[in-house]
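Narrative progress, year one. The postdoctoral researcher (J.K.) led the effort to move from monomer predictions toward full complexes, under supervision of the PI. The following entry was the first complex the group processed end to end, covering 902 residues in total.
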Amino acid sequence: MKEISFITRRLLYGIVLVVGVTFISFLLMVYFGPDKTFELIGKNPTSQQIAEVRQSLGYDRPFLLRYVDYLFELGTLDLGLSDTSGEPVESVLARSLPISIALVVPGFILGNLLGLGFALFAAWNRGRWPDKLIMGASVMGMSISFLVIIIVLQVFLCTPYGLNIFPVRGWQVHDFSSYLHYVSVPTLALVLVTLGYNTRFYRAVMVEEIARDHIRTLRAFGASSFEILFRHVLKNSLIPVLTRVMFSVPFVLISGSLLLESFFGIPGIGLVTFNAITSGDQPILKAVVGLTGVLFVMALTLNDLLYGVVDPRVESS
Amino acid sequence: MLSGCGEPPSTQSEKPVKVYRHAMDGAPGSLDPAQAASVYANFMVVNLYDTLYRYKYLARPYRLHPNLAADMPTISMDGLQLTIPIKKGVHFIDDPAFENGIGREVRAQDFVYSIKRHFDPKTRAQGAWLWQNRIEGLDEWKSRGSNYDNEISGLRALDDHTIQITLTRPFPQLLHTLTQGYSSVVPQEAIDLYGQQLSSHPVGSGPYQMVSRDPVRAVLARNPAFRAEPFDLQTEGFDKPTQGGLGLEILQGRVPPFTDRLELEFITEDAARWNAFSAGEVHFIKVPVSQFDSVLSGRDPLALSPQFENIYQFRASQDAGFIYTNFNMADESIGYHPDQRQNDRNRLLRCAMVKAFDWEKRNEIFFYGIGRVFPGVLPPSVPEYDANGDSGYILRDLEGARKLLQEGEWNEDNLPVLEYGFPNSVTERQIFEQFRNFMMDIGYPPEKIRPLIFATYGDYQRAYSQGKVTLINSSWTMDYPDAENNMQLYFGPNAAPGSNSSNYDNPEYNRLYRSASSLHESPERTRIYRQMNQLLINDCASITGISRTLLFLWDKQALMVPDRSFLGGYYLRFVEILDSTTVVP
């Protein structure tokens, strides 16, 4: 009962949040976003033709009416047609969202698991050479541009100038083997670029935990490193870890990884969103913004529930 | 991870499928022919739909050839009425839009319907400008409410296989407009069923039909019902001295399309496009300028590096258009001014800026030094180009520029502030900085040439159409191979928001344009166009221009003559992919 009341309160709070986010985003889109009129008119247009296009885009309607329509569209999931391709927005999302998820999930999981592993190892060896080596490598990884990593990996793994064992681009996935064929290099790039950030963040959390009294007591009792690290340090560090992971999920799912999708020719939601931003495709943008807001609220709610699971003190409070 | 190495498992049937993979440097938007405004959309649309005419595959200069039309038109003595027969037995692809899902025959009425759509506001069409005020009754049809039940006197289907077009005045370029994707024939049933979604669900009668499409690629499959018309080298304008080494002879007598499947990859990033080509994932690439150094071993003449000679075919092609910087002539600070004295001073200022512009450096830095610089709006690709034209207009002359400034009594203090517009990109910013540097060499204070940056090209276009930009850096891609398409860029009545972004309005230029509008390409028209070009030069209305040289590379396994200008996507039906056992003569 307590949980239901909590979830209800959270969801109500979430609705207010979604309305706020969509209102501000819509305001920005309408008044500061690209105007598509001149991209959709032919050469030598008359003022009548310009007015016709503006009317067909709905630009001539009052802002509030357009915003109410937008909320209605979100509520009914009838998101209209893309201004650029004419395709139903629902179809675009249904096609591209699963691809982005399939693309980034392995890298996201690996990047976090490896980050946790390296962070534990570095924190346990704090100040000694393994710590310095891992931190040095992390800083190096963080310093190299994502773009450079992608291009180097492409050249090294996907072209005749290197090993030429993976495709440069594409996403013709029809079974697990072809999935591995297309996802491997993007995953490697994602892991390389996120590992440094994750390791540094998690190490800071672990170092703080390792310095606590109860860990010193455990060490004094002669507990094994494995038991200390995985049973006590990791478990007690889960709140910040969980927060970082959960808050990343909506952005990972929705924005995918624009650079990955763009350079590896993967038709995910990140690329769709980027194209919509640069071309001023408002129906797509409105859907993505709304969806991000909803996912964010869901992640927030789930995050709060999970806090109670990993730390009973949170639940009782 | 390594289990994913190597070729992905095949899902193909036993029969070998011939696939041509083509890299495009941009993605098409809508594939509704009425909205096929971009080069990329047009490239695809002409493969999915039929147009009445196309250009011959191999003939240069470009020559018209019947496509869906059965023959060239019969033209009345006054040039105002064209009667066009269309081929019998041509069918649309099978689609749920048709009764029992079976594509019906293409009829003359479909063409009439397709052109009407451009004049229906609901279509959000972009091709109406081609026929606006040209076809009898068409504009009136729109003003009466675009009711498809109403007939148009100048656009009629005499029977199922005969079209009659009546013009309001002679329009020699009409047939060129009928090669464009805009004029593709669309069945009304498809519009009734799909409406706006036709843009992602093409229903045509072209050589290919859509299999799938997403933001990074499109897959087209051969239309099994496409009419069987054997390929003939001579008819297509084969030129043995220049095209003899390409192996095209083996295509003689065979029926296009020669490939079963087209895979069009939309790769906007140069590095990714080049990597995909190097890895053999695509057969063709328009070489990015960043790779010119590695691809070319010489610039004059253009020669391919030895490392690529054995694996790739190579072709250089002049871009069908040019790049220029217009002065906004409607801006009194630099353009026309009611006060004659100030008007003359403004002209001197513009001419000084033209002289300060360094085309050699522009060409070297942004076009690898292989672009073609020419004075005015008649580029080397049109027959009216004058090799002995006013070359002084494109030569840098700082001394001459300073003299003109002095003559106009311009100095650091009284020079006007200029707003130089461009859409946001690194290259555009670099081009602006270079321009500003050129002008600083004649004493123009840098703070008086201000960048005006826009998020998208559409926003930029809106700004200059509303007169908010003083210096308009732009490019023009010709719609058809006729210089008229360039001359109209400075025709007064086409001023912004029309294509005359400079708002140039010279009564003599306008008079000459009108007098030449009914003329076909001829010595008389050439004389007039050159005279108009000189007027533009004398008025210093634009800093123009350069025509890019494009480099194409393609796998030797692919037999083809690629084209990115007027022929465009039409050549895809003639691409042949050889298997390893085929011997090319």
